[in-house]
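Design job #97: recover the sequence.
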């Protein structure tokens, strides 16, 4: 019953900004981490950023200083603020979460459907 709902993707010019959102819903007992991966055409999916509930965020080197990940525990939502966007950031961005469901005794990974981010003139 767990679902990850993503939003915020779109087309933006180089140097512009976008904010992605991902809200987890369902029979969630514990939400351990949430984050963002991306996959560009012809490339492997890579971790962009993640944050553990109550922990510190991590970033891939190429986005440090430009992207900021944050979370809202009450809303079970993670955000990715993307500034100074570059064409190289163009990709499908996937929300990721490690969640323990109400009826489970362990956590499992969950993925969103993906949202397209295109950085182009």
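Job complete. Output follows.
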């Amino acid at each position: 019953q767990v679902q990850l709902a993503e939003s915020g993707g779109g087309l933006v010019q180089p140097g512009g900004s976008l904010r992605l959102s991902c809200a987890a819903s369902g029979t969630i007992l514990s939400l351990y981490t949430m984050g963002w991966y991306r996959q560009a055409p012809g490339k492997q999916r890579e971790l962009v950023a993640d944050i553990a509930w109550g922990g510190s965020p991590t970033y891939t080197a190429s986005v440090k200083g430009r992207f900021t990940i944050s979370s809202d525990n009450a809303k079970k939502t993670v955000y990715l603020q993307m500034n100074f966007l570059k064409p190289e950031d163009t990709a499908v961005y996937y929300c990721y979460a490690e969640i323990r469901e109400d009826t489970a005794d362990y956590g499992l990974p969950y993925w969103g459907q993906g949202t397209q981010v295109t950085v182009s003139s």
